[in-house]
Amino acid sequence: MSPRATEFLQNVLNPSEAIRATTMKVASSLSESDATAIFDAICQRLSQTEGALVDSIPLKAQQEFCAARKDLLGQFIAFWSNITEDRVPFSMPPKVALLCKGTPFADSATALVSKWSVSTANTRLAKAATDHLAKK
Fold it and tell me: What is the dihedral of CA 119, 115, 64, 31, to 10 degrees?
């Protein structure tokens, strides 16, 4: 990871929402390799978190980064497809759909939300996903 990417990662994981927001303004100027390295580092932080992945700073950073870098949405969908459903926050179905709306990943997002809607491991997630799909 380049020094610029390392600094970006540190700032995007900062508890200060203002610092994260300022940092995200330059996300589009990162090289593809730096963006991928940053995304992978954020995902690694999320993967190492024990238990449910509640609305933590790494989770917010991942979503904000993907909003700024739509080229990472395929990796975003793949990440959440591989997380066990008992760890997925029930807030994720609308967030996934919104991030992917109007992109080539919209169908993949809908498929993921549909998968979550029948989850037996996380009934709150299943309800949230079902409710989201019903609003479409």
Answer: 130
Identify the domain containing residue 48 by its residue range: 3-135
Distance CA 111, CA 113 (A): 6
Confidence (pTM): 0.91
Q: Could you tell me which of 17, 60, 65, 56 has the C-alpha nearest to residue 38?
A: 65
**SS3 at position 13:** coil
Average per-residue pLDDT for the chain: 93
Q: How many domains does the chain have?
A: 1
pLDDT tens-place string over residues 51-99: 767 768 999 999 999 999 999 999 999 999 999 999 999 999 999 999 9
